[in-house]
Design goal:
elongated
């Protein structure tokens, strides 16, 4: 079964359609060293590993991780297949990301309070006019 999985190949347009992203985005991830398709002439041939990495790149983006952070995790995984180092690094990234998001949430709440106050002020002035 694993022999079959490793022999599955995808074109750039296959991945583009499946993940609903542009081929330009996929080439960009390749330029960043996150994907490494085989080449047959000018044609890129992606394997199952590339497909999984692309899925992880997009998930990481959605969660707010930078491409550099995602790339570091890929490098750690390539070095440590047991993934203990990778999991520890992911936990550190998660902790940092959660801290950043909590700070952003606090900032947003503070701005909302200020906007509510300004709105109340404007309404009070309008009533006196």
């Amino acid at each position: 079964m694993s022999q079959k999985l490793t022999s599955i190949k995808f074109s750039i347009s296959d991945l583009s359609k499946e993940f609903d992203i542009t081929t330009r985005s996929i080439r960009f991830y390749e330029d960043q060293g996150l994907l490494s398709p085989a080449r047959k002439g000018q044609t890129r041939i992606y394997n199952q590993r590339d497909k999984v990495r692309l899925k992880l790149i997009l998930r990481g983006k959605r969660l707010g991780f930078s491409l550099a952070e995602t790339g570091r995790l890929f490098e750690l995984y390539d070095v440590d297949k047991t993934s203990a180092i990778q999991l520890t690094s992911i936990m550190t990234l998660i902790t940092n990301k959660k801290g950043d998001l909590k700070q952003q949430l606090n900032d947003i709440n503070a701005v909302l309070i200020e906007l509510d106050d300004l709105e109340d002020n404007c309404n009070s002035i309008l009533k006196t006019l």
